[in-house]
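The aim of this short unit is practical: by the end, you should be able to scan a pair of folded records and say something sensible about each. We start with the first protein, listed as its amino acid sequence and then its structure tokens.
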Amino acid sequence: MPDKYRRHFLKNREAKILLHEASEKLQTDLNSFFKERADIEVIETDVAEIILVNGRPIMIKTSDGVYPTLKFEEYLRLAPKVIVDMGAVPYVCKGANVMAPGVRRIEGTFRSNSIVAIVDEKFGKPIALGEILFGSEEALKLKQGKVVKNLFYVGDKTWNLLKELTLDDH
């Protein structure tokens, strides 16, 4: 567990602003994922701010913005996906960007700089979240070069932080 962290609830106004910012970045209405009123709590650490919604760790806030966690399953089911071959998996899970030769297919439509789930082809499990560098039509045509900038991946600092804080609900 981190040596120091601060945990607090956001006021309604702050929570609305945060959800609005995240909804715009993810191009989806995050309020639609929460049936009841969303109680938003923040855990501030030296790695990142973990955003809990109704007790679940669904977002990460860094100096670059707000992103979903790999535990936000409802969002990941609907998010655009880049499916990679199994040869790319160990590299992506060490922080490597996704290169065109490792991309098997793309699901969903998106514009450049959108957040996408990076999924392994064998099990269909999200292994990372990244920022796609091209729109969906252009990304499908690429044969070489970087396609997705890896942001968060299984085994990184934020993943381990979630486990350390025992917020993992699985």
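Turning to the second protein, read its sequence before its tokens, just as you did above.
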Amino acid sequence: MTSGSTKQYTHRPVTVDDATLIVEAVNAYSQAHYGDNRLGENEVRAWFGPDGKPERDDMEIWLDVKGEPQAYAQLCDPEWPPAWDVWLDVTVHPASARDAGLWDDVLDWTERKTRALIAPGNPEVGHRCGARILATDGSGLQAYEKHGFEQVRTETLMQIEFDAEAMTAPEWPDGIQVRVLDPDMDLEPYALAYGEAFRDHWGHTELSPEQLIRRKRSEFRGWGDEFMPELWFLAVDGNEIVGGVGSFLNHGGDPTRSYLYNVFVRRAWRSRGIATALLRHSFQAVRERGARSAELHVDSENLTWALQLYRGVGMKPLWHQHLYEKVLPPAEA
């Protein structure tokens, strides 16, 4: 029996055989709150290595007495914001969303796992845990606040349905060219350019070149077959990478949807139309491969005029989600 709950649950680490159960739980949540699916089975299977085992042991699933998934949680290395040490990815099935005992069990598990990452005896080290919760998810917001999380930011999901306006040809500034990312040749300069561009964003923490490169390499590998380098485009000035954008197809398991990721332009090259050209170039590329829409998340309080940029190419806000944070003190020696 889950502590504090009127229902009985069991929980255990996930395996690749749980991919269907994870998708079922996550998409039941997304259907209830968004009206569509947010996860595809191929995306989940990409989390596992060729031996069917996850790279990390901090992925857990909660099942009811019938063996049906009621909650899922994992701890992730956050790609953004780097100020977070751990990102909590938690989903509770709508059928159990009001079960405070289940929420307690899930969030207690994430905290125990997070504390296990903290090196004992180092008084300078604590962990900042982050989580994203849909603004309309009252049960989730209440559960996180009960466990000491505080809202620190809001994100907006932007979307564009491809039409004549979206298919406007990109106009590249003088001296700027576009090419496809080569993961072998471009990884290191791409990671460094990306790190420089995001210095202006909330939550920035300065990382060494080695850390930036290691994170980006791990990120690309972690996507498995979902990562298609031919849909990652670089804006270059001579041999210098000045901006970039990447896309994923089959978003939420739907071949007509795509997701844009890592849109950036370095400060010295901004206000020249490069980001607009990158977006329009990306729209054309995913549309040629069957997508009929594109989505992305943006910091609602972004200081680089990102909301205006996305509105300017025809994207519209769909919904908002809150970023919540909790600081865990260092473990005692």
